[in-house]
Amino acid sequence: MNIYRHYLPSLLSVLALTTTSIQAAEPSRLVFLEQASVAAAGTVAVDLGYDADVGAGVNTGIRIGLAGGEFQINRSDWDSVLPSSTDYTTTIGFKKSINTDLALYGEFGMIDREQNDIETDDATSIAFGAAYSINPGPGFFVSLNAELVALDDPGLEDETFIKLGVGALYDLNLTQTGKVYLLGELITDDSSDTDTTLLLGARWAVNDRVTIDFSVIENSGDAQETTAVPGSITVNLVF
After folding, report:
1. Which of 98, 130, 138, 190 is the most buried (most CB within 10 A)?
2. Cα–chain-centroid distance for residue 81?
3. Least confident residue range of 47-51, 88-92, 120-124
């Protein structure tokens, strides 16, 4: 497709960069947003997710530390706004750490749709982005994301849009219980088909190999609004 031929050279240029990577002991992501860190070389990080509305199988993924970066496979399942319809999104990507503050990444996405267990029109996307992370104060971590997304959907007009996000972690300094953070994300874009997403929750880094993320509020406009304790849980395991 034309959009892939146009952006593929840029993706290859990003992945060819050779720099010192910043490797993460905790997850190299927030919840939906990326951080500037990457998985440690030779490690495999697995996400297992649960959502109060959808059930098990949401936000599952794997990250493998290699080549000064990380290879990613992510899977999300959700109920569509259409009756008896379910959407499944799979993304495959690579993130490269440029320095302590900056990482570049690219990903290819596939959206599979089913209605009454029958496959309907599928869609694909390609995205290129940057994650910039800073530590503005003791125990306070902020990550900024910017993405260019190209969507090819037979059911909609092809669309290219910009996605922006800001996320933060604040360490509560509960030293006897691992590390416990307050967590928040705000994501917006100029697409005509999506709404601004707000997520508030917490992260418990039990140790270097087990981290649990909890969300209390997930609001994506009229299409999806979850307020629960917890609204979703994602367990990250490092091997």
Report:
1. 98
2. 22
3. 120-124
